[in-house]
Predict the structure.
Amino acid sequence: MKTVIELLHEGAKKYGESPYLGEKSGSVYETVSFAGADRQSLAFAASLVLRGFNKDDRISILSEGRTAWVLGEFGLLRAGCISVPLSTKLSPDELVFRLDHSESRAIFISENNFPKLAEILGKVKVPPVVVCLSGKTDSMTQQLEKTSLIAGQNFFYYEDLVAEGQRALDTPANPAVFGGKPLSRVMEEREEEIKTDDTVTICYTSGTTGNPKGIMLTHRNYLHNAENAARVVEVQRGWKSLIMLPLDHSFAHTVGIYIFLLKGLTMYFVDARGGPLAALRNLPKNLTEVNPDFLLTVPALSGNFMKKMIQGVAEKGAFINSIFERGVRAGIARAGNGFNKPPLGVRIASFFPWALANALIFPKLRTVFGSDIKFCVGGGALLEIKQQEFFNAIGVPVYQGYGLTENAPIICANSERRHKFGTSGVIIPNLDVRIMKDDTTECGIGQIGQIVTRGGSVMKGYFKNPDATEETLRDGWLWSGDLGYIDEDGFLVVTGREKALLIAADGEKYSPETIEEAIINTSRYINQVMAYNNQCKFTSAVITVNTGALKEAVTTAGLASGGDEAKRIDAVLAMIRDDLLAFTAHKDYRTLPTQWRPASFALIAQPFDESNGLINSTLKLVRHKVCEVYKDRIDELYATGTADPFSRGNRQAVRELKLW
């Protein structure tokens, strides 16, 4: 196969009328078969061609996961266009940037996200044609009436375009249209023009200067990644899954849309009618309705499940809870690290407490995921070892993988057949991976360096950004910016992120430089700053201060002498906290997303410099070094689960600054 469209055709031939996609309609799930997906996407593609969409036109998609999302994207690809999948969490300004930068001629959108689009239509350089993926409702009609969009001119419903395209395909050729060729032949020719190195998606991610980069992934990239990843994480024809992750991620494209086609799996979507909060409420019910065989998840979601399970059992009383806790500990002991089994004595000693919990408690916990669950696949962010051990102990293992969008995205993964807790798994077949100490020196086993890859999964480049492409792609190798090592058993361990993108608990990412620049440009006292968020509930910062400026402010405020020292220290830390967030009142930085604003900080008394290895020869912050040196201070920031600028470490740092 050369294109994902051919993959769709092959899936239709191989699996026919077996269900491929499922979406809640009324009180039941309605499905579209593999063959039906092929037919419906062709009809939609025909309507796009009839309306003048051409090869390489960009079309954005802003919607929660749904059947029309998948079929709409296949339709635009069959018309020769390029998909620009967008996160539903984008701010209005971020949405405008992506629509303008991609020069999208159209946008497919759901009713839930239409208000966000309506807000920015007047700000886009060339307003796109709007296609609503949701059905016709009174609410949608009312929203449409409040805009300048006109139904039938620059606003359409997906279902109407599918019907229009099908009628045109069924109508005899018109001598005045397409030179008298049947539309079916026109569509065949359009598909024949599509090459394996043509772009499928432009996936935007955060850039180091704040403006995101558009990652171009091709048919070759997705096919290579799907085919080889499926050889590591094994699934069986007829299995089903409830897709809880947004479809704009390349992870959901490869592991969801394409591997499901490849292996004959059924993809059901969470019922998101009513918006994100409704989707969260519907998730437990949808899980029992679908009874998935496996799930795609992210650490924040699986972590929430773990927390609720632990709390739920605790509420059953001390006796039941003790059985549960001993059973979990025993299950962890019995598994070892998943690859190297513990001694026989450990397994014998731990058998009874594990077996008791596995008979009385674990089965009830597993039913949260339905009755058929076998395992979960974790992506989006690194899964902490505690979660891996916990879920394995209760019988629903979460197999962690690692990748990045530029690699379409999977680089390695754990699986039922071969896994090791605390690692990201084994490299997928037909992908070269090196760990590089520098541009020319490869690391040995166990040595930390930058992860670089080469193979069919590696992106085409960054859209309209040749400089960034040249920096990241060197002689066919993709330099990930992530740090890690390969252990003695062949598992990849990711240790840090040289690029240091902030990663929230839900897997969303953001450039730290954007926040850091805002702080430095508006602060009076802060000298150096490193924003930090590694799958945490809130963002924090590691900072040093301009001692002279702060000392002057302390004196002016009358804090240099007299009174209770503890209260004076509190006042200084409050000054620093306010100074850290001064950018929030500045006109250039007010729009920075709230979740990336530091809620707390670790004050360091000594500046970062070359002598302690925290600044390199070009005066750039060596982020992973800062994280290593000040690991205890960073851990302190999150120890209680709440942001506390008045921590013990910060109090001691104020004393070391000798401000009085």
